[in-house]
TrEMBL record:
InterPro entries: Amidase_Cbmase, Bact_exopeptidase_dim_dom, Peptidase_M20, Peptidase_M20_dimer. Belongs to the peptidase M20 family. Pfam families: M20_dimer, Peptidase_M20. Keywords: Hydrolase. It comes from Acetobacter sacchari. This is Zn-dependent hydrolase.
Length: 419
């Protein structure tokens, strides 16, 4: 046994009720293919929010919502002067979303509140469950909008002014479903934040691990590259006199691949978009435009990858008579989660003897912004085939229960260790 004896006692979540909650809320926006279409601030979103309020209140929680519609279900602690240990994720989905992305985090948190309520277990801090508004960003871009306002990354004014494709303002949609609250978004002290989520990748399933101890979110940079050569007749232009932009591009694509491999296993590099001009079978290509996506858990590695790519580009340009420009168009720094919170998750997984491994998130989550304002980490569970943002998305009952159990014990551990 681990040092967890005593922390959490024998309290565990009711996995059957948790699964039943997943199926029950999946009715709000259910699609014929078994997925969910529950875009933020729609009627379906209102229905699941109302369900959230009713269900949390039945567990003795006080439910409030802020000016961005973020919902907070609070179970009181024994020391009312302490800010809450929070758990959360999102109940909105993609247009053809699944039953688990985001939902496991909110309903898993609900299972924790239920376990505390039914066991009568007391905590020093209040324990609070958060349902973030518009995590997906598919109706109102960008994603993670309301946790972003909460963390001060976006202003509330710019968020409220966002419009969907039909020209509906975010603020009007929020007022329309009755969830624009009086508390200003961000004016809500928190002591820590834990987010349970499906991995949305294949690693845990492939390695037969139940729990991913998430240590951070990888950094990411996007570049746009333009390679300019000289159009020429495919028959009449001798090889020695060509400036073939596509051949130069081929060398650069190969460089992205080899640079990423050189920094394996953490780094990834992708050329996913390419436009070849004039794209005619008997013309030597005179211009190519393509994208580069570089990611790694360590920003310093991304910088080194960029330097290597720029050096290769300079060499290709001088050897091949090409003009190559590289523009950095997006820089999303890596996030490292809080060591105390990560340790709480690791100890919780050990205490249940769940197979676990450290993992870095390849996707963005509300936890990315929360990490800027409070000790934060995440817990991953496997999903079938790593498939997500898809109606086929699926997870095993036992894994969902395990994730919620780890969330429960991590929260109890944090309650003891944090102030
Ligand atoms: Zn999500």
């Amino acid at each position: 046994m681990s040092g967890f004896d005593g922390i959490g006692g024998n309290v565990t979540v009711d996995g059957g009720k948790l699964w039943a909650d997943i199926l029950e809320t999946a009715r709000f926006g259910a699609t014929p293919k078994g997925g969910i279409r529950r875009l933020t601030l729609t009627e379906e979103d209102r229905q699941v929010r109302d369900w959230f309020v009713r269900t949390c209140e039945a567990l003795g929680c006080v439910v409030t919502f802020d000016s961005m519609g973020n919902q907070f279900a609070r179970r009181a602690g024994t020391n009312p002067s302490l800010p809450p240990i929070t758990m959360g994720s999102h109940l909105d989905t993609q247009p053809t979303g699944g039953k688990f992305d985001g939902i496991v985090g909110v309903l898993g948190g609900l299972a924790v509140l239920r376990a505390l309520h039914e066991s009568g277990r007391e905590t020093r801090h209040p324990v609070e469950l958060i349902n973030w508004t518009n995590e997906e960003g598919s109706r109102f871009a960008p994603a993670m909008l309301s946790s972003g306002v909460f963390a001060g990354v976006f202003t509330e004014e710019e968020a409220l002014a966002k419009t969907d494709r039909d020209g509906v303002r975010f603020e009007d949609a929020l007022v329309g479903i009755g969830y624009r609250g009086a508390e200003r978004c961000g004016d809500h002290p928190v002591a820590a934040y834990f987010e349970l989520h499906i991995e949305q990748g294949p690693i845990l399933e492939a390695e037969r691990k139940t729990i991913g101890v998430v240590t951070g979110v990888q950094g990411m940079r996007w570049y746009e590259v333009t390679v300019i050569g000289r159009d020429g007749h495919a028959g009449a232009t001798p090889m020695a006199l060509r400036a073939d932009a596509l051949v130069g591009t081929a060398k650069l694509i190969e460089a992205v691949q080899s640079i990423a491999l050189k920094h394996a296993p953490g780094a990834v590099g992708t050329v996913g978009l390419l436009e070849n001009r004039p794209n005619s079978r008997n013309v030597v290509p005179g211009e190519v435009f393509f994208s580069v996506d570089l990611r790694d858990p360590d920003d310093a590695v991304i910088v080194r990858m960029e330097e290597a790519f720029r050096a290769t580009a300079a060499q290709v340009a001088s050897e091949s008579g090409l003009e190559i420009t590289i523009e950095l168009v997006w820089d999303s720094p890596a996030v490292r989660f809080d060591p105390t919170c990560i340790d709480a998750v690791r100890r919780a997984a050990d205490s249940f003897a769940y197979p676990a491994r450290d993992i870095v998130s390849g996707a963005g989550h509300d936890a990315v912004y929360m990490a800027g304002v409070t000790p934060t980490t995440m817990i991953f569970i496997p999903c079938a085939g790593g498939v997500s943002h898809n109606e086929e998305e699926s997870a095993e009952t036992d894994d969902v229960t395990a994730g919620a159990n780890v969330l429960l014990r991590a929260v109890l551990d944090a309650d003891e260790r944090l102030n």
